[in-house]
Amino acid sequence: MKIIEVEDYKALTKKTSEIIIERVSQSTSLTLGLATGSTPLGVYENLREDFLNNKTSYQHVQTFNLDEYVGLHKENPNSYYYYMRENLFNHIDIPSDQIHIPNGMAEDLEIECQRYEGLIEQVGGIDLQLLGIGVNGHIGFNEPGTAFDSTTHVVKLAESTRRANSRFFHDLSEVPTHAITMGIATIMKSKQIILLVYGLKKAQILHDLMTKEINEELPASILKKHPNVTIIADAKAMSIIK
Length: 242
Ligand code: F6R
Prior knowledge:
InterPro entries: Glc/Gal-6P_isomerase, Glucosamine6P_isomerase, Glucosamine6P_isomerase_CS, NagB/RpiA_transferase-like. Its EC number is 3.5.99.6. By secondary structure, the chain is α/β, with parallel strands linked by helices. It is 31% helix and 18% strand. The chain contains 7 helices and 10 strands. The strands form 2 sheets. It has a 7-stranded parallel β-sheet with strand order 1-10-9-6-2-3-5, with helices on one face. Strand 2, helix 2 and strand 3 form a beta-alpha-beta unit. The longest helix has 18 residues. The model has no long low-confidence stretch (mean pLDDT 97). The chain binds fructose -6-phosphate (F6R). Fructose -6-phosphate binds next to loops.
């Protein structure tokens, strides 16, 4: 894994969006894997601004989001569908049928997981996957203990994850208990991965990731086996490593 240390959040989002914009503008067909949460918000802001100023086109881009809550409608402001539309898709020229997010309202969630996994394969896999990391080392919603050979599946969210995400809801009881997530094996099939790590809150897990052995209790540790992972971390996230 290659680590790029940047000074602060602004530099982290600048570096990341530059990489994405370069790939989007230099390819004729591209599949992006996208994340939600706080960390990529500034990246999406830069992509919106770039589209406004430079008209970088996404007509040839397909996107696959990592995860979605179970039981939240697309129109629910806390759904990841809503988040992606508000923060990115409504502001660029990507055709709506090229946007893919697991359907957390599907009648049969198992079939939905298989459909999603199959769709990723069908388009030839993800070229560039953007990831954040949970304070417990999760990637996507793959919580500690998730099998490394897992594909897209339904997960019961860890209490720490529900608590961390409750900041977006009125209170903890509103946070869904389950989600659909790409599995670890799905993520590992991506050709290139960028892991964003930002802030003091993530300093301990970044330290653990860099120092501990690969094991299922630290889901992100599997990334050490991937041939093309770049971690972009700010100085605060790097503070324990140094
Ligand atoms: C989001 C996702 C999660 C987040 C992680 C970090 O789609 O899959 O793994 O990347 O929980 O979240 P933030 O960026 O809010 O700290």
